[in-house]
Design goal:
Helices cover about 60% and strands about 5% of the residues. The protein has a 4-stranded mixed sheet, with helices on both faces. It is mainly α. Strand 3 and strand 4 form a beta hairpin.
Length: about 575
Amino acid sequence: MKFRYLMVALPLLFPVNIFAAGLPDLGDASQATFSPQEERELGLRIMREIRADPSYLDDAEVAGYLTHLGNRLLLNSRESRPDQEFEFFAIKDPMINAFALPGGFMGFNTGLILTAQSESELAGVMAHEIAHVTQKHLARMIAGQRYSILTSLAAVALAVLASRTNPQAAQAVLIGSQARQIQSQLDFTRDHEKEADRIGLNILISAGLDPRGMSEFFERLQTAGRFRENGAPSYLRTHPITYERIADIDNRTHSLPYRQVPDSLDFQLVRAKLRATMGTPGEAVEFFDSALREKRYSTEAVERYGLISALLRDRKFLRADKELMQLYENLQSDADEALENHHLTVAPQNTYKTPLSSDMIETLAERARLAVGQPAEALDIYKTDPRIYRPHRASNHYTSMDKTPENHRLGTTIQITRKSLQPSAMIETLAARVKLAMGQTAEALDIYEAALRTYPQHRALIYDYTDALLRANSADAALKFVNQQLQYMPNDIRLYQLQAQSYGALGDMMMQHRAQAEVYTRQGNVHAAIEQLQIALKGDDGDFYQKSSAEARLKELRVLAEAQKKEK
């Protein structure tokens, strides 16, 4: 079987009395004999297998959203440490599951993301899993059996994948190995679960999300019967959800004040995007068509975003372009209604802490200036901020609105001048993709350039813009842009791939192989990277500096390859 990644499942469902009194002291996580460096190296090896498998969802926007949510939780966690790295990613799998790997790598099945009905529900699962990692539960269990851990985890992983289509085959994989014994050793203990639930709930509360999301998600799974005996392999879940566990979580959150936490737009868009990938392209289109026709949605714009994604997948480009216009009309209408019906106020103080994005900090600065009677200074920010005053040259469906500030005091109505609407990086990325599909490359580039001024770190925009430049035979511009981005994201595999493509388009074979070597290095394939550098050095192109740099890098990788050989 092709799928061979070494996955350690973190079951969501355990029959434990969480938040019980007398929580045992598990000791300082730093006392684990499995060092952070060893843990990270093992995780990188496993991730090499994961990224090579078709089930790995190589989608910058889905991964970016999971990373943003994970960072929001981590920023409010007293348990996080500078030496603990995290990487969040998605797996194309309808089963409801989340898992963690050594070294802070954390995967979420698309089935789990789609099952979560609110952002707080998804965050509740993520917070629980983060707590397992920060408390070194996995590292503690691995430390005592490292002599056979790689072989054993491989056997368990094979059984996991076999069980999707053939439970008997999965059992056969287990019988011929030590996997069954090791799996029982890796199951989290009751004490681990108590600690992860307690800390996970605290993380959720500190991040300003609804703490009831955790119990609501578990209750939904129980009601749906998703984890009965015939629903998932028994070695991945030791026990089903119990009413007792849900009641324990509810008891702990009962005394907390109720706080309605709206879902972020990106959470809704990610779910719509994933839904558009399900079934055949025609079935996906019909799903969204039916929902829009029957008004079965909470936000029309989100549903239309999903429809456009499905239409692109079904290659119905003309209709996708038409629906894109309607999407922006929906968004503009929503914005107009919000300005007319709502007051811009400062939320009262509470116990919730939320990390501030650059946009939020900018907004607070504007409010502060208005509050102290400096409306002119506040308005200047809006006039010079490209996120607000940079309309798309290619998008004539934006409506201008001119309103003046009044009643400049906190807690009173504040109306702000706006000249354009850029509601989401994901929507801007989709708009540019529609234009590219229509063959309107110049318009797509306009959209990318305007959106990147607003969302300069949105990776899907960065990758797509580079691709669009290459399509437009602007390899020089593409290479310059990629090199600039690599200064901020020096370990981004996709950027090195784009760099290699750019060099190739320019006919610079030596630098193309040099860039490809960096791709393989970051994928954990050191031997392939060495081969690329050897090919690069055999060519006639390249100046003295470039060749010297390649030779130095080759020496580094040979040392690394030798060290890896000794570890086996």
